[in-house]
UniProtKB/TrEMBL annotation:
Name recorded for this polypeptide: 7,8-dihydroneopterin aldolase
Lyase among keywords: yes
Cellular component terms (Gene Ontology): cytoplasm
Job description of the protein: Catalyzes the conversion of 7,8-dihydroneopterin to 6-hydroxymethyl-7,8-dihydropterin.
A Pfam cross-reference name: FolB
Domain Dihydroneopterin aldolase/epimerase, first and last residues per copy: 5-118
Top-tier EC class: lyase
Family assignment from sequence similarity: Belongs to the DHNA family.
Length: 118
């Protein structure tokens, strides 16, 4: 049986980008995360200890979005690593998707997106 905890449509204003100007000016970002886990016991017993607390999940993402980096790939990998570290025995797969709105590519683009699945 597959169980998934997800946070979708998280929004942050942060200072990421390959170019120094991007890290200085900042931009709007969106984050989605999906964590495959087993929360059958939590569902049966109505007990938060048997699942992944999505408030803790949000804090992991918030922490990494607040650290200025050149690559979104680096942020996503750090989030995945922290999720596995915190809930190592109860995580089967993590998918993180990060969107950078209006990236500076010299043309019209709603968002650039990276996805990591591990």
């Amino acid at each position: 049986m597959k169980h998934t905890i997800a946070l979708e449509g998280l929004e942050f204003f942060a200072y990421h980008g390959f170019f120094k100007e991007e890290r200085k000016i900042g931009n709007k970002y969106g984050v989605d995360i999906f964590v495959d886990t087993d929360f059958k016991k939590a569902a049966q017993e109505d007990d938060l200890d048997g699942t992944i607390n999505y408030m803790d999940l949000y804090e992991i993402i918030k922490k990494h979005m607040s650290i200025s980096t050149k690559l979104l790939e680096n942020i996503a990998q750090n989030v995945v690593d922290d999720v596995y570290e915190k809930w190592s025995s109860n995580v089967f797969k993590v998918v993180v998707k990060i969107k950078k709105f209006n990236p500076p590519i010299g043309g019209v683009c709603t968002a650039s997106v990276i996805t990591i699945e591990q």
